[in-house]
Design goal:
CATH topology of the largest domain: Rossmann fold
Strand order of the largest sheet: 6-7-5-4-8-9-11-10
Number of helices: 17
CATH superfamily of the largest domain: Vaccinia Virus protein VP39
CATH class of the largest domain: Alpha Beta
Shape: globular
Number of domains: 3
Distance between the termini: 67 Å
Helix content: 25-40%
Number of strands: 33
Length: about 625
């Protein structure tokens, strides 16, 4: 009997190779036709869903959603992507491809399978570059500069169609033959396919089995048997019909509505750029400029602390980390430095936590792996007192510089050096007033103002958000035995950037002093010395806070220390569909911001959300809402 791995691991596909064609050992079936898999895909799925013609008709800012019930080698996806390149309109539009895979191929097997299609090489290389680690759950891959978005669910097909929120325009009903993999073709699966379809949704499948045709007809599809490809005599195609067919929705009705974002930190700038890349004009407003507040530090570590128990909170952190590593790759060796990151077992409590964590979980080595003290010292270039967990895909960012680049886009209008002092709804639009007497109107508004966000939310209740002061210290590079990677423990230390390296940050719950203090510098020095006694060079003997520069920022956290992203809950009419909140990222803003910007952009554009229902629920604003208590 197969034994499932510990969470969040998932069993990879076991393959046998015959003349370059992969065959599933588990199901005893090939992944694609031995004759010509690519041509079969084009014939069965592209031609019989009329994709070239339908792609060309998508309006500006619109999107087209293809859903598939077996990702396999990704050949169908690459064929659809290639067709999109050839037939999509010249204006901005997005292809969404939603697929599920219970037994995903390893990176090596995927590369081997796709190597036989030279004409797809460029697309295959980009897919392989972004291919996620083999862990259960949802992975969003942003490809072709945002023109193509792949939502890949690793896990059971029932779980996928239950937890994902989308409406398909076309279905690729692939997967192994019904006689070899009957679970994929059960009636309840077909009913879920119907639930994720709208009138006019088409489907195609290589199979012509009678019970499959009858089940699809019972779900409301008008089915037709037609000639199959190659040796296969027949195949099926269909369309979902209704008594009063509605037009296929390829773009949200709100597409021309104006969107304003208040706050130009990493979260606000990432969201603005995300929307602009999809073809949506945005106004980005900030009291200072891009990357001036909590995102204004010279260096920041890409870091999360994964929970001992693999629950929704841990899954969200892992999903954010994996997405962020792919997102920042676009700025590798510019503003993103993937040096690797060591999560040090810096005391007995953390060592015990890591021991229990490793016992209860199974993560791919591409995410992290345990290292000894000797290995940790070699990887970081600093003698350490213990081992820890090594995250090879992490590193450090220059967040302020990244914000400036994210905000630089033709569809992003910036209103900087304008502090917002009032936000009110009037005649169906939002009016945004600033202290320098500027007035901006927008149909929809997103508040991304960190710890200042509660002051801008115009509701009668209050939101459980709080500010926590954090001070970083700039240590002279000459005072350090310079690390070559990020080291995290009770403090973090980055490799030097020019003449200094950033360490910190303090965690000051009841201190609202916006200026750096000598006491906080000394606290950073002492804590770093406790964590890494060998990190200071001989020139650092007299290093004290009076000699250091640094910076103070205020993290915004929620009562449950989980971020918030979504429509504002006003306590009376429920969620407002025109006012959104993106904040509460705490000290992990660089990790969470890209994923939450992707998720919120999905919501704002009416496109398939990148998060499953269980993770989306964790981000809801209603959990923060409290009615005002009137004290007499």
């Amino acid at each position: 009997m197969d034994r499932a791995p510990l969470p969040p691991g998932i069993e990879p596909a076991e393959l046998a190779w015959h003349d370059g064609v992969p065959e599933s050992i588990r199901f005893g079936d090939v992944y694609f036709s031995r004759d010509n898999g690519l041509e079969e895909t084009r014939y069965v799925f592209l031609q019989h869903n009329q994709l070239p013609e339908r792609f060309a008709q998508i309006p500006e800012g619109g999107n087209f959603v293809i859903a598939e019930n077996g990702f396999g080698t990704g050949l169908n996806f690459l064929a659809a992507w290639q067709a999109w390149q050839r037939h999509a309109p010249a204006h901005a539009a997005t292809l969404h491809f939603v697929s599920v895979e219970r037994f995903p191929l390893t990176h090596e097997d995927l590369a081997r399978a796709l190597a036989q299609w030279p004409e797809l090489a460029a697309l295959a290389d980009e897919l392989l570059l972004h291919y996620p680690p083999l862990v259960r759950g949802v992975h969003r891959l942003v490809l072709a500069g945002g023109q193509v978005r792949l939502t890949l669910f690793f896990g059971d097909i029932n779980d996928a169609w239950q937890s994902l929120d989308f409406q398909a325009d076309a279905w690729f009903l692939d997967g192994f033959a019904p006689s070899r993999n009957p679970d994929m073709w059960l009636e309840n699966i077909i009913n879920k396919i119907r639930a994720h379809s709208r009138p006019g949704t088409t489907l195609a499948t290589f199979t012509s089995v009678g019970r499959i045709r009858r089940a699809l007809m019972g779900a409301g599809f008008r089915m037709e048997k037609t000639a199959g490809y190659g040796r296969k005599r027949d195949m099926l195609k269909g369309v979902l019909v209704a008594e009063n067919p509605a037009p296929i929705k390829t773009a949200p009705t709100e597409q021309q509505e104006s969107i304003a974002i208040i706050g130009a930190g990493v979260a606000g700038c990432a969201l603005a750029r995300n929307l602009a890349d999809r073809g949506y004009p945005v106004t980005l407003i900030d009291a200072h400029g891009p990357g001036a507040a909590a995102s204004g530090n010279a260096q920041g570590a890409l870091y999360v602390k994964l929970g001992v128990e693999f629950n929704d909170q841990t899954e969200l952190a892992l999903t954010a980390l994996s997405f962020a590593q792919r997102f920042y790759h676009n700025w590798r060796d510019q503003h993103w430095h993937p040096t690797g990151l060591l999560q040090l077992a810096h005391n007995s409590q953390e060592a015990d936590r890591q021991r229990r964590f490793l016992q209860r979980n199974d993560y791919p080595r591409s995410i992290f792996y345990p290292v000894t003290r000797e290995q940790a010292s070699a990887l970081t270039g600093v003698p350490t007192e213990s081992g820890g967990l090594w995250f090879p895909g992490s590193g450090w960012l220059e967040p302020a510089n990244l914000c400036k680049e994210l905000a630089n886009h033709p569809l992003i209008s910036t209103v900087f050096h304008s502090e917002v002092n009032n936000l009110r709804r009037s005649d169906g639009t939002w009016s945004i007033s600033t202290e320098n007497n500027r007035s901006i109107t927008a149909d929809r508004v997103v508040i991304c103002s960190g710890h200042l966000s509660p002051e801008l939310i115009p509701t009668k209740g209050r939101f459980r958000l709080k500010a926590i002061r954090g001070q970083v210290s700039h240590l002279p590079a000459t005072a350090l035995r310079g690390p070559t990677a990020v080291i995290c423990g009770n403090r973090y230390l980055n490799p030097a950037l020019g003449e200094f390296a950033v360490t910190g940050a303090t965690f000051d719950l009841r201190d609202n002093n916006p200026l750096p203090t000598v006491e906080s510098h000394n606290e950073n020095i002492d804590e770093l010395g406790s964590m890494l006694p060998a990190v200071f060079s001989d020139e650092s003997d007299a290093l004290r806070g009076e000699e250091l520069s640094g910076r103070v920022a205020f993290r915004c956290t929620t009562h449950d220390y989980q971020p918030v992203a979504g429509p504002v809950f006003d306590g009376e009419s429920g969620d407002l569909d025109s006012l959104y909140l993106l904040t509460g990222l705490g000290s992990k803003g660089l990790t969470y911001a890209p994923l939450l910007a992707e998720y919120l952009a999905d919501l704002l554009t009416g496109q398939p959300p990148c998060l499953p229902a269980n993770l989306a629920k964790r981000l809801e604003t209603r959990r923060l809402y409290q009615t005002n208590v009137v004290v007499s």
